[in-house]
Each structure stands twice: as structure tokens, then as C-alpha cells.
Fold:
Amino acid sequence: MSNMMLINGKWIGLSEGKPSTGVINPATEEVFKHIPQADADDIKLAVDAASDAFKPWSSLSYAQRGEYLKKAASIVYERSNEIGRLMTMEMGKPLAEAVGEVEKASKALLYYAEEGERVYGRIISDQSRSFQSHVSYYPVGPVAAIIPWNYPIELLAWKACAALTAGCTMVIKPASITPLSSSAFCRCLTDAGLPDGVINLVFGSGSVIGKYLISDKRIKKVAFTGSTEVGKKIVQQCAVNMTKYSAELGGHCPMIVGQSADIDTAASDAARRSFRNMGQICIAINRIYVHSSIHDSFVEKLKVKTEELVIGDSLKTEGVNLGPMADKNGLLKIKDQIKDALSKGAVCVTGGSAPENQAKGFFFKPTILTNVNHNMLLMKEESFGPIVGIMPFDTTEEAVELANDTNYGLAAYVQSNDYYETEYFIENLSAGNIAVNNPDAGVMNAPYGGWNDSGDGYEHGPEGLFGYLKIKHIRKRIRKS
Ligand code: NAP
Ligand code: MG
Structure:
């Protein structure tokens, strides 16, 4: 069931005679399921369906649409184990984290189910008392949502919750690595009674079918999360029809550990945010700058925390913290970055190789490198893997200069117990999200977006919802003179 696409309320499996492709379990490197692939005709049918469904769906009140989302939230929650298991099998994250991700998607549905009722317009007084301006909001129209594989359900849910609440309909294209959990999630929405065509799900390689979706004039917004490279291509394609877009792109996130920081907290937060999900998170910590007076003790504590992390296949072993990487290319990229750094003088404090006890699968030990500099790939290029480089600094100005030495601007992390130093970092770090003395830069009810090469637009919070709305300004004569 989970290997089916959805077009206009009809679930489409392999029996429809479409070309198929395999889904690989990264812990075993084996294909465990096949899925059908959409072609240009399927994309057209999906956009037809989303266009036809737009009028009736957008004509409902926010409260009515909210009822569908609330019902879907409870179904998603009930099926969180089943959906989480599919996610672990297709992209490798530990089962408990996969289930937790699905539960968070359920909460996102509840949050936006309520947030819709808080879309208020404005009344603006004119220079003349005879006139008044009204500002009201309308859904942008059918949306194409293109999703990556690293948080396949949360990233799909954020878009679906906000778009559906706003009154938009959708064609969703999950990453090729993670079709199954996406399909199981969409089934929760249809089982909640969502009318046919309001959401559609198509499988296929983004570089092949993406263009059909984006270039269709009836698509009024492209909501993209993925790499900066693909994001820039999509933005160019959107320009052709002036299609709105939101782009949540890559990152290369710094952490600064000031002299006054609590070193234990800094080390455990660094271990979590550098290595969770095998570093395959856009807001992963890639570079750590530590005040030189505490550099060595921080490195030692982070090494201990890192070596405590249990690597394995969570579907076979209890207590696993780190699964395999999601695909082989990711593994090759970090091996290249490590080789490059070592050849330029870096020191490997821990990790640097695959664990000895895993014969198969894209497993790798979390890796800490010191003696690094900004001429090394890992300090510039998004790693999207379990490696982190650590450098000492002496002054707050130097720390900020090093942290901002990137084209990305997604998240930055600060560990400091000095009030004025912390304020200096907050003021001067160039990133859309700053986490101070904690490792989590995003929460559901506050805006989340990147600066510079990390994207344009917001998810989460009211800002996420308003990204699916357009403004109508009405200037009214309200008095005869
Ligand atoms: P990706 O290669 O950019 O792919 C993302 C999505 O775009 C996938 O569904 C992919 O389909 C599709 N796609 C690929 N080429 C396309 C094209 N030419 N036209 C239309 N769609 C296309 O990214 P990824 O490897 O899946 O994910 C990792 C990246 O996502 C990292 O750079 C990470 O930083 C970023 N990310 C950002 C955020 C954020 O919030 N800022 C969150 C998570 C991840 P296929 O799978 O079929 O190729
Ligand atoms: Mg990719």
C-alpha cells in the first residue's frame, strides 16, 4: 500500500504497468520494495486534479479546513509507528527518531488547524475620511511541494499543513529515496476525508519530472526544500511564469563556544547537533569555533560524548543512536572531505572510518577533526554527514568573522554565559536562526528560514502560513463626501 502514488483520489500502484524503480534499505543495501514512476502525463493529470479541486477547497472556511487537519492529525499519530518504520527502512534514521518525527508532523497538523483562524486582514485609514483600505488574504492556488529525504515527513507536513490551511491544493513530489513514508502520510490525509484532488502524490526523479511540474502555469507556488544547487535551478524555472516559491536550502552551520560557556553542555549539544541523523540535517553543526583557553578540554569532552553514540540498524538492535547514512553518495562525499582535510594537516580525534562490526550498509563513525582551516572542503562545503571540524579563536570579533565566512546563512549556535558577548554574537552572526545555549534552532510556532544561499521564504509559524496567501487590497469609498 505504501508504494502507491495518488492522483485525483486514485491510488496508483505497480499493477498500472508504469515503469518501476527499487527502494533501498541503507542498512542492508538491499532493494526491499518497488514503486511506480510518474511520467509527464501523470504530472499533467495531477495538476489537473489540483486545479479542479482548488475552487471548492479554497471556498471552505478556515475552521472547516481545520477540521480535516485535526482528523488527519489523530490518524497520523495512530500510525506513527508504521510510518516511522517505513522511514527507517528507506533512509536509515533510528526508529525512535523516525516515530518522533511522525508525531511532530501530527502536532504540526494541529498547530496549523488552529492557526488558520488567526489569518486576519487589516483596515487602513485613507488620507481622506471618505475612503478606507481593506487588506485581505487569498490562497495562492495549486502548489507543487518538492521534498528532500532527510526529514521526509516533517518537511512534507510543514508544507502540507500550511498550504492546506491556507486553502491551496497540492501536488507533492517526495525525494526518490523516501517515497514510502510519504505515501503512508498522504494516506492519513485521504483517510481523514480530504476531497479528491486536494493532495496528489507523484513519484519520480526530480531532475526528470520536476520541470513538468514547475513549468505548468496552473502551479502558483513551488515549495522547495533541498540543496542550494537544485534550489537555484528551480527559482530560475519559477521566474518564467512568475510562480511564487519558497526555498529552504543547504547550510554550513557554525557553533561558537565562548570562554564563559558551560563546557559539558556545549559538548553534549555539539554531539547532538553535529551527528544526529548522521549529520544529514540542514542545520547540522559543521564547524565549531572554541575559545583557545578551553579548546582542548572541549575537544576531549566532545570526543567522549561522540564515542558513547551507538551505531547500528535500529530495526535489529536496541538503543541505537546513529543509523547508516541514507545513500552511498553521501558517504563518498564525507570520505572525500576527510581525505582532503587530512592531506592538508588536519588531525582526526575520533572516527574517520566505518565501524568494524557492520559488514553491509552505509555506516560511518561520527568524526571529529581538529587542526582544521578554511582551505579545507569540510569547512566550506556542506558535508551532510557525521563530521565536524573544530578551530580555536581568541577574540569575539575573530569568532564572528570565522563563523560568517560562508555563503550559507541557515543557523548558528552560541554557547556562552557572558551576556554582552552573547548579544554581540546574536547581533553579528549572519544566519536566519540562532540557538543560544541549546542545540535546537527551530520550533513549530516561530518562523524558520535561511539567509543568503540558504534560501528565501519561511516555514513554521504564521509566516509559514502567509507564504501560501496573497494579498488583495480593496480601496473603498465609505462616505459620500
Ligand atoms: P536535492 O538533491 O536538492 O533534492 C531535493 C528534492 O528535489 C528531491 O525531491 C529531488 O528529487 C528534487 N529534485 C532534484 N533535482 C531536481 C530538479 N532539477 N528539479 C526539481 N526537483 C528536483 O536535496 P536532497 O539531497 O534530497 O536533500 C539534501 C539537501 O536538502 C541538503 O542540501 C540540505 O541542506 C537540504 N535541506 C534543507 C533544509 C532547510 O530547511 N533549509 C531542510 C532539509 C534539507 P530526487 O530525490 O528524485 O532527486
Ligand atoms: Mg540529492
Remarks:
- The chain has a mean pLDDT of 97.
- The chain is about 40% helix and 20% strand.
- The domain at 5-249+453-473 is CATH 3.40.605.10 (Aldehyde Dehydrogenase; Chain A, domain 1).
